[in-house]
Q: What sequence folds into this?
């Protein structure tokens, strides 16, 4: 089955490049512009009965930041979906916060497409 | 391009720092060779240099650093000792790495190939100290091909994975990680640790209880393996350790203590059949000695004969007695006891100073009589050996008929039981053994498909615990079909289709009459056919059965039986004025009733704080429909019991003394009543009822899942 990834980032450039890279690798991608938008997208996925294999999110975003977003996800039925954080933040305490909120992994920008796909494969079953 | 330059800059400055650190550690080691922290530091530095240089494409540096790292690994594992020569050598290595880094920073090649190879050989010579002593390690490749060979050489790693219990909440999947490792090499051994697994009642499906130990044979690097753990290594207890030294020539030298057959079996060199048939060919000690000419065949014969004679003599010291004679002795002892008790209570009521001596004498006689009764009862005890042997044989025959392979293990053969009980458990045991072989154990092909050894295992085990005998029959077959049982229970209307029912309750169903009569169940194997018969027979013996099953791992039936069928130790209590006897072996404590310790929930449920736990209270007067004019009001004491599966408290008016009684069956004298094991005549001639705690438990707990309605209807049944 096609793996569905929700990608959240406020930068259009990053959104388009990451989505391109993921789609190219055969994943289905839904984009969201911030945490709030991400939660809404997940709400409609739930209504449409779509599955979700992975969430990739930025940290610094308007309206709702990544950490808050992660903890909100953990309150939904998508709580067991792995979440990767893709950000420029490398601060130890922030990473710790993210982990405590339930992030599965941390990826630092800038990154190579291979690195991204490699990381995705670490948390998503693929054939 | 600029980004790459930046990365290079970072690499140069980082490497310089690391080399400095490594130097410091080496110098510190020179003065304190035992310092593990310095060895660790040194190792980490070299490790980082190796991976960093590979990342930026300086493969020569990386390969050289890798070799040095291997050397340090040995140091770390105490396979090498710190000597001045070694430190000098390592300092030289650091200088060499620095020179290579300097060269590349100036845009030159990392090293002159000849020089590099020579340097590598030097390291390898250190590493090779071991190789020389064990030439079997395979011909060392010629120096020129060496670099490639050494990197592609297989390494054995031990990977220990102990994840956080809440791993699933971070979206991680341990299976994904295991399969990540599987892609990198060949699993030599995978051992899951299930010790943390709680019992079913406490099991939470969102928690992870299993940890793993993996031994993997791979030509991939340590980092490749570590990369699998990239997202879990920080906050989980996961380690990868190079254990190649232990696996010299690919064999775990820790296997040295194991039996040869086991080792070969584990390596997959031989099958279990090969092993069994080879073992069968083994000669007996006597034969070998004869063959070797150490003893003559006559000597052997003589020794065997005298051994047999001795055994015959031993047998001759036992006598055969008609069971009836023993039984009448038991009855007489019982009568005597009752008579004495009556005398005793008579004297207690009419105590006069002169009679004191008589009372004391009487007490002594009572004690002697008690001892007498116990000893007579023991005459009836037999070891279970014969019974077990019989079923071992039966299991083998049955399996043979069905072309199944089995191995039967029996333990606790010398456990003794009342002859009558032994006789009566033969039937239930037969049934259980049949179930195990027919339905539990799979065919050879099925087992192989599941990755199990071709021969199924059936284990008979007997042991005594407390005042009871336990007999376990365990198989490692397919386990009971819980889903099938549930479907059947729904069909029978015992549960609602959408009802969530615990495994225990489901297993309880198969023992209920009416469950297994349908032919449909017989077709779908492993559903505990005829278990109700087994249960009834055990009930009659005052025994219980406990079932534990796990899909594809097998089923264990545990029979719990009274040691002596006739004698029972009880505690005499009164509840609502009724004289009752509680089996002593189940009592964990008694306590004064304290109202404030009670906590109520639901309509009928009440729990009581006892030794830090909340234990449910079972109102026996209500269950047994005794006269409950004042409900629980005047209960002044509590008796706490543990039936093995449940602990609960029984409110009583008064706790009197412990007694040893002979239980008279209610069934033969009246009719069977659930919750009561029987009755007895006490010393004062009054009748007292013996509680059947498991029956009470069943009435009170097992029906409560249906809610209060079922609970009450059950009570009505009892009263009606």
A:
């Amino acid at each position: 089955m096609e793996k569905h990834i929700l990608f959240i980032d406020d930068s259009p450039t990053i959104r388009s490049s990451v989505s391109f890279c993921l789609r190219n690798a055969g994943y289905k991608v839904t984009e969201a512009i911030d945490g709030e938008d991400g939660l809404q997208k997940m709400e409609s996925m739930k209504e449409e009965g779509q599955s979700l294999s992975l969430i990739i999110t930025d940290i610094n975003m308007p309206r709702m930041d990544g950490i808050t977003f992660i903890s909100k996800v953990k309150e939904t039925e998508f709580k067991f979906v792995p979440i990767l954080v893709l950000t420029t933040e490398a601060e130890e305490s922030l990473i710790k916060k993210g982990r405590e909120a339930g992030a599965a992994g941390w990826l630092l920008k800038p990154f190579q497409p291979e690195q991204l796909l490699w990381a995705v494969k670490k948390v998503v079953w693929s054939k | 391009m600029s980004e790459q330059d930046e990365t290079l800059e970072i690499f140069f400055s980082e490497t310089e720092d690391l080399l400095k650190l490594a130097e410091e550690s080496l110098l510190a080691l020179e003065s304190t060779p035992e310092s593990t922290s310095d060895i660790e530091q040194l190792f980490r530095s070299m490790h980082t240099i190796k991976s960093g240089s590979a990342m930026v494409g300086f493969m020569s540096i990386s390969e050289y650093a890798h070799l040095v790292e291997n050397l340090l690994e040995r140091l770390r594992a105490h396979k090498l000792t710190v000597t001045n020569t070694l430190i000098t050598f390592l300092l030289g290595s650091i200088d060499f790495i620095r020179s290579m880094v300097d060269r590349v920073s100036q845009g030159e090649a990392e090293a002159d190939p000849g020089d590099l190879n020579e340097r590598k050989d030097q390291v390898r010579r250190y590493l090779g100290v071991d190789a020389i002593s064990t030439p079997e390690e395979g011909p060392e490749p010629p120096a020129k091909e060496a670099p490639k060979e050494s990197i592609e050489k297989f390494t054995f790693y031990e990977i220990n994975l102990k994840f956080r219990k809440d791993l699933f909440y971070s979206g991680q999947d341990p299976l994904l990680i295991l399969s990540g490792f599987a892609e990198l090499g060949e699993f030599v051994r995978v051992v899951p640790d299930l010790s943390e697994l709680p019992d079913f009642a406490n099991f939470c499906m969102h928690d992870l209880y299993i940890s793993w130990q993996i031994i993997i044979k791979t030509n991939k690097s340590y980092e490749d393996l570590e990369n699998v753990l990239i997202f879990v290594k920080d906050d989980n207890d996961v380690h990868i350790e190079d254990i190649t030294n232990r696996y010299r020539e690919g064999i775990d030298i820790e296997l040295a203590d194991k039996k040869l057959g086991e080792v070969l079996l584990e390596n997959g060199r031989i099958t279990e059949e090969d092993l069994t048939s080879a073992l069968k060919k083994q000669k007996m000690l006597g034969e070998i000695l004869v063959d070797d000419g150490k003893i003559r065949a006559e000597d052997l014969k003589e020794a065997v004969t005298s051994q047999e004679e001795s055994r015959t003599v031993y047998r001759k010291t036992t006598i055969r007695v008609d069971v009836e004679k023993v039984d009448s002795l038991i009855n007489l002892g019982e009568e005597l006891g009752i008579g004495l008790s009556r005398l005793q209570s008579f004297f207690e009521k009419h105590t006069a100073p002169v009679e004191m001596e008589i009372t004391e004498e009487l007490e002594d006689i009572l004690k002697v009589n008690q001892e007498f009764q116990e000893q007579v009862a023991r005459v009836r005890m037999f070891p279970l050996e014969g019974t077990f042997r019989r079923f071992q044989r039966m299991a083998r025959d049955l399996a043979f008929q069905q072309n199944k392979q089995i191995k039967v293990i029996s333990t606790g053969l010398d456990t003794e039981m009342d002859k009558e009980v032994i006789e009566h458990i033969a039937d239930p045991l037969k049934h259980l053994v049949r179930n195990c072989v027919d339905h539990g154990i799979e065919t050879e092909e099925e087992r192989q498909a599941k990755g199990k050894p071709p021969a199924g295992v059936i284990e008979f085990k007997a042991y005594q615990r407390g005042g009871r005998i336990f007999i376990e029959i365990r198989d490692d077959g397919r386990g009971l079909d819980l889903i099938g049982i549930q479907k059947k229970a729904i069909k029978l209307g015992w549960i609602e289709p959408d009802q969530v029912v615990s495994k225990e309750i489901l297993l309880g169903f198969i023992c209920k009459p009416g469950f297994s009569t349908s032919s449909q169940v017989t077709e779908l194997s492993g559903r505990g056919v005829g278990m109700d018969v087994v249960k009834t027979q055990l009930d009659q013996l005052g025994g219980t059965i406990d079932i534990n099953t796990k899909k594809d791992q097998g089923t264990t039936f545990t029979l719990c039986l009274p040691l002596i069928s006739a004698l029972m130790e009880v505690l005499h209590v009164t509840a609502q004025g009724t004289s009752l006897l509680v089996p002593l072996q189940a009592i964990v404590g008694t306590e004064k009733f304290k109202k404030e310790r009670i906590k109520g929930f639901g309509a009928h449920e009440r729990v009581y704080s006892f030794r830090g736990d909340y234990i449910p209270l079972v109102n026996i007067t209500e269950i047994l429909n005794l006269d409950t004019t004042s409900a629980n009001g005047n209960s002044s004491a509590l008796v706490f019991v543990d039936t093995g599966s449940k602990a609960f408290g029984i409110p009583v008016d008064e706790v009197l003394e412990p007694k040893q009684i002979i239980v008279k069956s209610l069934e033969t004298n009246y009719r069977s009543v659930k919750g009561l094991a029987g009755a007895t005549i006490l010393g004062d001639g009054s009748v007292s009822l013996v509680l059947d705690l498991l029956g009470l438990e069943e009435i009170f707990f097992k029906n409560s899942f249906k809610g209060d309605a079922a609970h009450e209807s059950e009570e009505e049944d009892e009263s009606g």
In short: Chain B touches chain A through 15 residues (CB under 8 Å). Confidence is low (pLDDT under 50) at residues 129-152, 517-528, 705-720 of chain B. Residues 184 and 220 of chain B are 7 Å apart (CA to CA).
